């Protein structure tokens, strides 16, 4: 499978795998979200962007329509935001490293 094929199917498969754990099978509740963040994100750089240790905060950040769970659309946005953060880190484009103000959706440490 080509790399983008892989990325796309992975995003969908990971979401579905965790979402069908309990409750609504098309949404991640707090426990499910915590598991995804803990198990599917290992890179410290990305982990620092979304803290599974404070799941209340992570949920608030991701749950754009405020229904208490993360749907696929919200999950995609999260993955996309992480990709953008990684891109900025790698290229130095976008977020300024020594800027005191936090970048929207991509806080710089
Ligand atoms: Ca669920
Ligand atoms: Ca939601």
Q: Bound small molecules, which ones?
A: calcium ion
Helix content: 55-70%
Mean pLDDT over all positions: 89
Q: Give helix and strand order, one letter per element, not per position.
A: HEHHHEH
Highest-level CATH class = Mainly Alpha
The CATH homologous superfamily is termed EF-hand
The 3D shape can be described as: globular
- Beta strands, count: 2
Strand content: under 5%
Give the N-to-C terminal Cα separation: 36 Å
CATH architecture: Orthogonal Bundle
CATH topology: Recoverin, domain 1
- Count of helical stretches: 5
Q: Which characteristics define this entry?
A:
5 helices; calcium ion binding; mainly alpha; transition metal ion binding; S100_Ca-bd_sub; Recoverin, domain 1; binds calcium ion; metal-binding; calcium-dependent protein binding; 109 residues; 2 strands
Describe this entry's structure for a reader.
The chain is mainly alpha-helical and 109 residues long. The chain is built from 5 helices and 2 strands; from the N terminus they run H-E-H-H-H-E-H. The protein has a two-stranded antiparallel ribbon. Helix 1 runs antiparallel to helix 2. The protein is globular. It binds calcium ion (2 copies).
Brief characterization of the structure:
This protein has helices spanning 3-19, 30-40, 44-47, 55-62, 72-91, and strands at residues 27-28, 70-71. The chain has 109 residues and is mainly alpha-helical.
Task: Please outline the helices and strands.
Layout: H1 3-19, E1 27-28, H2 30-40, H3 44-47, H4 55-62, E2 70-71, H5 72-91
Antiparallel strand pairs: 1-2
The chain binds calcium ion (2 copies).
């Amino acid at each position: 499978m080509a790399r983008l094929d892989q990325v796309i199917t992975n995003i969908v498969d990971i979401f579905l795998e965790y979402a069908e754990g309990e409750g609504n099978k098309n949404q991640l509740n707090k426990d499910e979200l915590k598991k995804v963040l803990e198990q599917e994100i290992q890179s410290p750089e990305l982990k620092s962007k979304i803290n599974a240790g404070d799941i209340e905060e992570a949920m608030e950040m991701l749950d754009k329509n405020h229904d208490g769970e993360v749907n696929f659309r919200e999950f995609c946005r999260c993955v996309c935001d992480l990709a953008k953060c990684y891109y900025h880190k790698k290229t130095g484009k976008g977020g300024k490293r020594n800027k005191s103000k936090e970048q929207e959706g991509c806080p710089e440490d």
